[in-house]
C-alpha cells in the first residue's frame, strides 16, 4: 500500500535497529531535526506536544539531519545531550539520516512521496503525521510550529480514530 512506513527499519540514537511497525496503533509525528537552525526552538514545542498527547497515543520521532546548512554536525551522543539539557526532550531521537539526495533514507523516500506536496524535504523541522495504521496522512513545512492549530487538528483527528 502506498505511504505505509511500517516495513522500514531505522536506527535509534544508540545505534540499534528498530522496525517502525513497533508503532502500530500510535499516531506518529516524524520530524527532521537540527541543533543549530533558526527552527531549533521548535524542540520545546515538540516536547509540549509529547507531554500533552503522549498518553493518548502520539509518538514523536526526531531524526537528526545535517543536510541543510550543516546545522546538525554533532555525534548522536552530542545531539541527545543537547536536546535533553536545552529543551528537556523526552521523545525518541534516532540516528542521523539524510532526508534528501542520493543517500536519502528509505523512510524519507517514503514520506516525501506519500502526500502533497510531494518532493524533497526543503529544510530542517519539516513534519509528517502518520496514522495508527502507518499511513502518511499530512505534511507540514518547517515554518509550521508544533503548536499551530492546523498541525494539532490533524494530530487530534488521527488520535480520535
TrEMBL record:
GO BP terms in the entry: cellular response to oxidative stress
GO molecular function terms attached to this record: peroxidase activity
InterPro entries: Glutathione_peroxidase (IPR000889), GPX_AS (IPR029759), Thioredoxin-like_sf (IPR036249)
Ranges in a coiled coil: none
Catalytic residues as annotated in Swiss-Prot or TrEMBL: 37
Keyword Transmembrane: no
Keywords: Oxidoreductase, Peroxidase
Record Gene3D superfamilies: Glutaredoxin (3.40.30.10)
Recorded family membership: Belongs to the glutathione peroxidase family.
Protein name, per record: Glutathione peroxidase
Organism: Trichormus variabilis SAG 1403-4b
